[in-house]
Amino acid sequence: MTKILISLIVFFSSSVLAENISDFELKGISVGDSVLNFYSQDEINNGLITEYPNSKKIIELSIIEEEHDDFEQMNFSVYSNDDKYIILSLSGYMRFNNKLEECLIKKDDIENDILKILDIENIEIDEYTYQYDKIGDGKNYAYITDYDLSDGSIRIYCNEWSDSSKSLEQYNFNDSLTVSVSNNVYLDFINYEAY
Fold it and tell me: How high is the pLDDT of residue 67?
């Protein structure tokens, strides 16, 4: 199986068509890998753990990258009782504070590279804008592109938060770019069980 590397500098090898969600990598990490292959148990223990309100079956581990040249934070969704930390979903996060245009340009670059290596006939592509209208002044947006493969999806999005929402003390909002790669097990959990 050939792995396709998603990086913010060099994205994909255009000579190989990706067929499975596990063919994609962020920082050399794929769905189906163990987080322990890339981070120590101490780094995992010191990361932030997020639980979902309606089910504790899957958790999200967030690890801040102390030294980074691309993603500032990596997030991994794993079964809560899995001591091997096998990845069901992973995402990388990068800040673009008050630089939405730069974020959208980087998003377009990633999308163009993805289109070079995906078998377009076998996937669904959905582009849309989502409004976070229940947060702050409601003038907050996500500019989203989803690539739905048979066994999972890739989502790329830029978040734009209003100055009013950024000033709310209970949140720590930053304009940002996120790239996520998820298998269908995780997507079904999010859609039907987590909330």
Answer: 81
